[in-house]
Amino acid sequence: MMSTKEKIMQAALKLYLAHGIQGTTTKQICDVSGVSNGSLFNYFKNKDELLIATYYYIKEMMYFEAFDKAKDETNFKDYMYEVWKSLINFGLEHDEMRLFFDSFKKSPAVRSCVREDIPGAYDKFHEKINEAIQSGEIDVPDIYFFWLNMDHNVSTIIEYIRQSESVDVNRLIDDRFKYFWRTIYDL
Predict the structure, then answer these.
(1) Alpha carbons 9 and 97: distance in angstroms, whole number
(2) pLDDT tens per residue across span 111-149
(3) Is 97 exposed, middle or buried (0-12, 13-18, 19+ CB in 10 A)?
(4) What is the pLDDT, as a whole number, of residue 4?
(5) What is the 3-state secondary structure (H, E, C) of the chain?
(6) Contact of 119 with 63, CB cutoff 8 Å
């Protein structure tokens, strides 16, 4: 059973997608979630705090469903392939969350949390990327650039799969990972 806080964030998510972030009011969120205005503000100081909390709520779900499923391969390329597949599958299975992420990236609120993470959640992932950068295994300026590059590629693949009537998803995931890897691998 969902907590009141989760109900509020789920309602906000649906409304953000239907009306846009700026076009969603707290009254609409209260109506859809079935909570009073006072209850909403008991959990969130303002609409921006709710927006950011919704972002972190989804990000945490993504971590547990995508990153946690990635096998802890010793080879960095194999590990990244597991993360790659998990992120694409998460996006395909959770379309609303993916769409929210895409719109959130364009929101002014993104500046306040773009480089923040759920405490400890991405430590292993970041550690592996930093090790690969420092060892010269991959050729990217920093972890932020790496993440933006990977995020863009993953989003493009998910959108392509969603729009294509007939595509071999596993082959596409494999082929596009090989392409992505060539863009970051230090030859």
Answers:
(1) 11
(2) 556 545 555 656 777 888 899 999 999 999 988 889 889
(3) buried
(4) 93
(5) CCCHHHHHHHHHHHHHHHHCCCCCCHHHHHHHHCCCHHHHHHHCCCHHHHHHHHHHHHHHHHHHHHHCCCCCCCCHHHHHHHHHHHHHHHHHHCHHHHHHHHHHCCCHHHHHCCCCCCCCCCHHHHHHHHHHHHHCCECCCCHHHHHHHHHHHHHHHHHHHHHCCCCCHHHHHHHHHHHHHHHHECC
(6) no
CA 91, CA 71: separation in Å to the nearest integer? 18
Place of tokens 């990635």: 70
Query: What tokens does 94 get?
Result: 């959770």
* Alpha-carbon separation of residue 27 from 15, 20, 62 (angstroms): 11, 15, 28
Dump pLDDT digits (tens) for 55-65: 888 888 887 77
Tokens coding 71 = 């096998």
Q: Ramachandran region of residue 148, left (φ > 0), alpha (ψ -120 to 50) or beta?
A: alpha
Lowest mean pLDDT among 29-33, 64-68, 86-90: 64-68
pTM: 0.80
For residues 114 and 164, give the distance between their C-alpha atoms in angstroms, rounded to a whole number: 31
**Residue recorded with tokens 């030859």:** 187
Q: How far apart are CA 93 and CA 107, in angstroms?
A: 24
